[in-house]
Write a structure and sequence with these properties.
Elements lengths: L3 E2 L12 H10 L4 E4 L8 H10 L3 E10 L2 E8 L2 H17 L13 E6 L11 E5 L10 H4 L5 E3 L2 E2 L4 H15 L21 H7 L4 H13 L19 H20 L4 H16 L3 H16 L4 E4 L6 H5 L29 E5 L3 H12 L4 E9 L2 H11 L4 H9 L9 H13 L3 E13 L10 E2 L7 E2 L3 H6 L4 E7 H17 L8 H4 L3 H8 L12 H10 L4 H10 L2 H5 L2 H10 L9 H6 L10 H11 L4 H10 L7 H17 L4 H14 L6 H20 L1 H10 L7 H10 L3 E3 L11 E3 L2 E3 L10 H14 L5 H7 L4 H10 L9 H12 L7 H7 L16 H10 L31 E16 L2 E9 L5 E6 L1 H6 L7 E11 L2 E11 L25 E4 L8 H4 L8
Helix pairs in contact: 5-13, 8-9, 8-10, 13-14, 13-15, 17-29, 17-30, 19-29, 20-21, 21-29, 25-26, 27-28, 29-30, 30-31, 34-35
Length: 1017
């Protein structure tokens, strides 16, 4: 009898999760239930499963509203009816087609109108819903004549009184108004909660026809759905057989290119993989991915295929990935196996500059009726809860900021704040809005609106109304189309080399991108700033500790730095064993036989499968189930316990002791869900090498490209420093020599106009476009003639030195600009400035102090270019110990002068600590550790130069300094404000530092790791 139930997927309206809604209905012994969320079908698939689990017949539909006004409620007679309604709502969301207050012609949908919106004529499938408080109206003639077309309409929106208040709060949030200003039409009736069907029937007993109509609708509707059937595009060609033929032909063609004609091992591997791919009906998935890559290659775009898909030799031969699975002994079963119910997983990266072109191709190639992004439900989070709820209670912005920033236990205890906290707690984990999944694309066989309505977020690509987990659950496999800046940097560098040097670097040539001699030297000492994935302080430290000088070690490093491996202590143990191969014994012979490459340590997810198979006696497929049971969001304690029991029983049958098995499982459990698969690490390693090769041999082209791709781990200043130490003559922007992006002319690096924080993007582009069209600017006057610009923008360009080609001092240029623009009217620009000769001004010589330019640069781009930060210090002291000497000072105290690059926050049991990264006066990098006890007295004071006192600790070739004391060194006063003492130190606060936060637990100490270094019992 409940034809109109809302869950919290009716965003900012409903208060019940699907689970709570079904549980309540079951407690009241309801046997049929209809879910009709507002303008969405987000919850219908979970709803079906929840209902059937407790013996309730699920029926679904949608409540159609516009601007809060209820037009009608739809209830699907069968699954196809959902698609009819989805199409109407999709046209409204994505094509701006107006929603009509009267429902269109539906074939398999019942429509229920509220009494406030009865159309002049009712179709056969249309009814009028009567609420309990509307029964008295039925004596009126205008309503009485419709009784034969009426049904019971008892809506469900909340459960408790508190949830009713929460509903009103949600409505106030949605309407961006105060709770006290909500009107009755903006929130639901106070009666919209479950009552027993017996009570409901009793209320309507005088109208048996209404009851009968309601029962007929419920009896006639059903929601049948096959979760197991794959909903993706079935065939790339016209049939499964043709797909297999094409995939086989492409695979063997690629085999010849990759391995030659007579590689029997590769042939057998391809045969085995094709058989599994065909049996699992994934030929079309491979072919669609191949098609996207084929298009990408035809456009000259670089891509990286990573994730577990790189375990497949078929994907390698198709060109989807560039990782040879034979070279690295990669298990195909980690990617696909006959026991694996989940779809294959290709993660394909493109440059952030090219990704939208790839997306447009996919939508055009496979049809916009069949393609959409996965959605995500953005939940109310701690900060948003206090801001949103506090706002509807009328709290001022300052108090909202305070509540959002501070822990709940430190909040004021006044009555309003207590109300905010009370309802805020109820809102935790509630969906707040839908957004676009970062990379997941769905390509369906049937029109995608058969399964969901679509929405159009600001980014311009339609999204489905459910997330990736529901998509996978219902048989829609996503294609992950990602973007990153690292590929943009590589691509731009190759193009820039062609422009500056006249030849093309084939960066995909593995002779260049793996195990190149000079690159390995750079790698082993951590000279990797700017290089994808290997530039962070932690990664550079790891590379130095490992003296990483080859591809295989880099592959391992890419995985062991992952949180789970490092957190379990396996990273420290790996470093020890890598440097001391003769100081440990293998835990068990199986570990030596299968994990010798990684010194008996499980570094990759595949290692779990190996140990499960060879130590535990499980099949490869069961080993993958073991790995999956311990990883990701689908982690289930019950499932994990089953897998653990299976592992222990199997080990017992193989004769392993309980103690031996327990230790093996502890090692698996400690990190299995958080390490990379080996193929993923290998993909990262190849891209890292590509970046490094370009950095080593074409450093200026590479650093210019890093800057233009807006960097990576560090701020732009650090990459400009790298350009300088690589031999670049870095120049501030110039209106005649700079483009929007940073450019390279010989060894001169001209910073791009985009780096000027106060310069509008449009103006920057106009400056370049006008110069390219009509030639260089001859003077400041000529510039003002040709560019429509105000005095504030002119000042920015003058102060940064963009008119230095005129050879006039900045002071003089500024006076000229003001005189030229006095009483200047834009509408007279052509007449006044082109036809009239410009008057020459003779000004007195205006003297500028040294370093004024440096302070201009700090103000306009955030850092000095014409000098180093050390040049701006009051002291002439530069230190006696430098980075190049640190290895000689193990366990000794040193005093160093250094410029702060970045610091990373890490919580410990005793409080916050930081790891710092610095450069010395020679431009070399080093790292520091700051423990809570020293930070109490000697904390960081923002960006700038510091005098450091600490003890050097050399850990496997890598020196760090444990800081005991530090002091920020004073800079000279700003010479531009010699007349104003108060402003002389304002600009110093703009000196930047990079601060990153982590909330991981501290890495364990050696004695806490407990990994046996001797053969175990």
């Amino acid at each position: 009898m409940f034809l109109n139930c809302h869950s919290y997927h009716s965003l900012r309206y409903g208060t019940l999760s699907i689970e709570k809604l079904v549980k309540q209905a079951n407690e009241l012994e309801v046997k049929q239930l209809v879910l009709t969320d507002i303008n969405t079908v987000t919850g219908i698939y979970d709803f079906k499963k929840e209902c059937e689990a407790v013996g309730i017949k699920p029926i679904v539909g949608m409540e159609v509203r516009k601007d809060g006004k209820l037009f009608y409620i739809t209830i699907s007679k069968e699954f196809s009816g959902i698609g009819e309604v989805n199409k109407v709502v999709t046209e409204y969301n994505c094509e701006n087609k107006e929603l009509s207050e009267v429902a269109p012609e539906f074939k398999n949908v019942f429509v229920i109108y509220p009494m406030s919106n009865i159309p002049s004529k009712l179709k056969e499938n249309e009814f009028i819903g009567v609420r309990i408080d509307e029964l008295n109206f039925l004596i009126r003639p205008e309503y009485k004549k419709h009784i034969s077309k009426m049904v019971v309409l008892h809506s469900v929106t909340f459960k408790t009184d508190d949830e009713y208040e929460l509903h009103k709060i949600l409505r106030a949030i949605d309407n961006n108004t105060l709770l006290s200003k909500l009107t009755k039409k903006e929130f639901c009736r106070q009666s919209e909660y479950f009552i027993s069907e017996e009570k409901l029937l009793k209320i309507f007993e005088r109208y048996p026809e209404i009851i009968s109509n309601t029962k007929n609708i419920i009896d006639e509707c059903r929601f049948e759905f096959n979760f197991k059937q794959v909903k993706n595009k079935k065939f790339y060609t016209k049939s499964k057989e043709d797909d297999l033929k094409l995939l086989t032909r492409l695979a063997y063609s690629g085999l010849e290119k990759r391995y030659g004609l007579n590689h029997e091992i590769a042939k057998k591997r391809i045969e085995k993989e094709l058989k599994v791919i065909d049996e699992l009906n994934f030929c079309s998935y491979f072919l669609i991915t191949w098609d996207i890559i084929f298009y990408s290659n035809s456009m000259g775009f670089m891509h990286v295929g990573r994730g577990s898909g790189a375990n497949s030799i078929v994907s390698y031969c198709l060109g989807i990935t560039d990782i040879c699975p034979l070279e690295l002994d990669l298990y195909f079963e980690r990617f696909l196996n006959l026991n694996r119910k989940t779809p294959p997983d290709f993660d394909i990266d493109w440059s952030w500059q090219n990704r939208d072109i790839i997306l447009e191709y996919i939508f055009d190639r496979y049809g916009r009726d069949h393609v959409a992004f996965c959605g995500t439900n953005v939940e109310f989070k701690y900060k948003s809860i206090f801001r949103e709820v506090g706002k509807v209670f009328g709290l001022p912005k300052e108090e909202l900021d305070n509540l959002a920033a501070k822990p709940i236990e430190t909040h004021d205890r006044n009555s309003v704040v207590q109300m905010v906290q009370k309802y805020g707690r109820l809102l935790e984990k509630y969906p707040n809005q839908r957004s676009m999944h970062s990379c997941g694309i769905l390509i369906s066989e049937e029109p995608i609106t058969n399964y969901t309505a679509l929405e159009m977020p600001p980014k311009g690509f339609p999204i489905v109304q459910f997330d990736m987990n529901v998509a996978e659950d219902i048989g829609l496999e996503k294609f992950d189309i990602l973007s990153q800046r690292g590929l943009g940097t590589i691509n731009d560098t190759v193009n820039l080399i062609k422009k500056t040097r006249g030849f093309t670097v084939d960066i995909r040539d593995t002779a260049l991108s793996k195990d190149e001699g000079k690159c390995n030297e750079y790698l082993s000492v951590g000279r990797t700033i700017g290089c994808f994935y290997i530039e962070s302080p932690a990664m550079r430290g790891l590379l130095r500790r490992l003296k990483c000088d080859n591809y295989r070690t880099l592959v391992a490093a890419s995985s062991i730095i992952r949180p789970g491996v490092a957190q379990s202590g396996m990273m420290k143990e790996y470093i020890f064993r890598h440097n001391n191969p003769d100081k440990f014994e293998y835990f068990h012979s199986v570990f030596e036989e299968n994990l010798k490459e990684t010194y008996g340590i499980m570094v990759y997810q595949e290692d779990v499968i190996k140990i499960a198979q060879y130590f535990g006696g499980l099949s490869l497929a069961d080993g993958d189930i073991l790995r999956r049971a311990m990883s990701g969001k689908g982690r289930s304690l019950k499932k994990l316990q089953q897998v653990k029991d299976n592992f222990f029983n199997s080990c017992k049958r193989k004769g392993h002791s309980e103690q031996l098995t327990a230790e093996a499982f502890r090692q698996i459990e400690s990190f299995a869900g958080y390490s990379f698969c080996k193929a993923h690490s290998a993909s990262y390693a190849v891209e890292s090498y590509q970046s490094l090769y370009l950095k080593v041999y074409y450093p200026l082209e590479f650093m210019v490209s890093v800057i233009n791709n807006q960097g990576g781990f560090y701020r732009t200043e650090v990459y400009i420093h790298e350009a300088k130490i690589s031999g670049g003559n870095v120049q501030v922007p110039c209106v005649n020599l700079s483009d929007f992006q940073t450019t390279l002319k010989g060894t001169d690096v001209y910073l791009g106009l985009m780096l000027l924080e106060g310069l509008e993007t449009k103006v920057a582009h106009d400056i370049v476009k006008e110069r390219e069209t009509n030639g260089d600017y001859k003077s400041l006057e000529d510039f003002i003639r040709r560019i429509n610009i105000g005095i504030e923008t002119i000042q920015i360009l003058i102060f940064i030195g963009a008119f230095r080609f005129t050879a006039k001092p900045k002071n003089e240029l500024l006076v000229e600009a003001r005189l030229l623009l006095t009483n200047f009217k834009p509408e007279n620009r052509g007449l006044m400035l082109i036809e009239e000769p410009v008057q020459e001004f003779k000004l007195p010589q205006l003297k500028r102090e040294s370093f004024e330019d440096a302070f201009d640069e700090i103000e306009l781009i955030g850092f000095p270019v014409s000098c180093t930060p050390f040049d701006l210090l009051k002291t002439k002291y530069r230190g006696f110990v430098f980075v190049k000497d640190l290895l000689k000072f193990h366990k000794k105290q040193v005093k160093m002068l250094a410029y702060l690059i970045s610091r990373k926050h890490v919580p410990t049991k005793k409080g916050t600590m930081y790891f710092g990264t610095w450069i010395d006066v020679n431009g070399d990098y080093f790292d520091t550790a700051h423990f809570p006890n020293s930070l109490k007295e000697y904390d960081f004071q923002g960006g700038g130069c510091y005098l450091l006192l600490g003890t050097v600790e050399v850990d496997f070739h890598f020196p760090t300094i444990t800081i005991h004391k530090m002091a920020k060194m004073p800079m000279i006063p700003d010479p531009r404000y010699s007349y104003d003492k108060e402003k002389q130190y304002d600009i110093h606060r703009q000196i930047k530092e990079d601060v990153s936060m982590t909330f991981r637990k501290p890495y364990p100490q050696e004695h806490e790791i407990g990994l046996p270094r001797n053969k175990f019992g």
